[in-house]
Amino acid sequence: MRVDPVFLDRVAVKDGERLAVLSCEESLRDDLDVTREAIETSISVLLGQHHAVIVDVPRVATAPYRWVLDNADFRVIVADQTLKSARDAARLRAALTEDVDHRNLLVINRAGEAGCRAVPLKEMESVLKLRPNFIIPYEPASFAKAINAGTTPAAQRGRFLQGIASLAATLQGREATRRRWWRR
């Protein structure tokens, strides 16, 4: 199978110099016949153009997507504090073995959104046998403020930015540094 690097570069939506997003626009009703070879070839071409490739694997992982999970350096399990999400994360965690070359990370997204109905972090940790590495807080006010200002929520200071920056730094293999609010 031949994958054209120029085509992949042109169909990707770019946000600055450091981020390009390549998405699928297939109907959700269609059964896609994606082969492991097609995914492997596409990822190898993309790695020739970028430092990292992030693949969002569907909830029902077929053989090609299991190959992606088996070969990923980092497997990021994203969950919120709902019972359904904790159950799904536990199933995924059980399927992913961890070793030196393959690291599992747990991201708690929208932390605090479920209020008193939320599954406590300690309980999620004991069920998943994986401590949350990153906690991204639920901050609807900062999202509304960013939308009104025409920026992204990550462009503003706060706990949301700290969570996203820490995750990005870990995936890049470096330590996160906090930006100082003052300058000399």
Layout of helices and strands:
Layout: H1 5-11, E1 13-14, E2 20-21, H2 36-49, H3 63-71, E3 74-79, H4 83-95, E4 103-111, H5 121-128, E5 134-137, H6 140-149, H7 159-172
Helix pairs in contact: 2-3
What structural category arises from helix and sheet content?
A: alpha/beta
Cα radius of gyration in angstroms: 18 Å
β-strand percent reads: 5-15%
SSE run: HEEHHEHEHEHH
Unreliable residue stretches? none
Number of strands: 5
Cα shape: globular
Give the termini distance in whole angstroms.
55 Å
Average pLDDT over all residues: 87
Largest sheet features: 3 strands, parallel
Number of helices: 7
Q: Order of strands across the biggest sheet?
A: 3-4-5
Helical content stands at 40-55%
Description:
By secondary structure, the protein is of the alpha/beta class. The protein has a domain of 71 residues. The protein has seven helices and five strands. The strands form two sheets. A three-stranded parallel β-sheet has the order 3-4-5. It has a two-stranded antiparallel ribbon with strand order 1-2. Strand 1 and strand 2 form a beta hairpin. The longest helix has 14 residues. The chain is globular. The mean pLDDT is 87.
Summarize the structure in short.
By secondary structure, the chain is an alpha/beta fold.
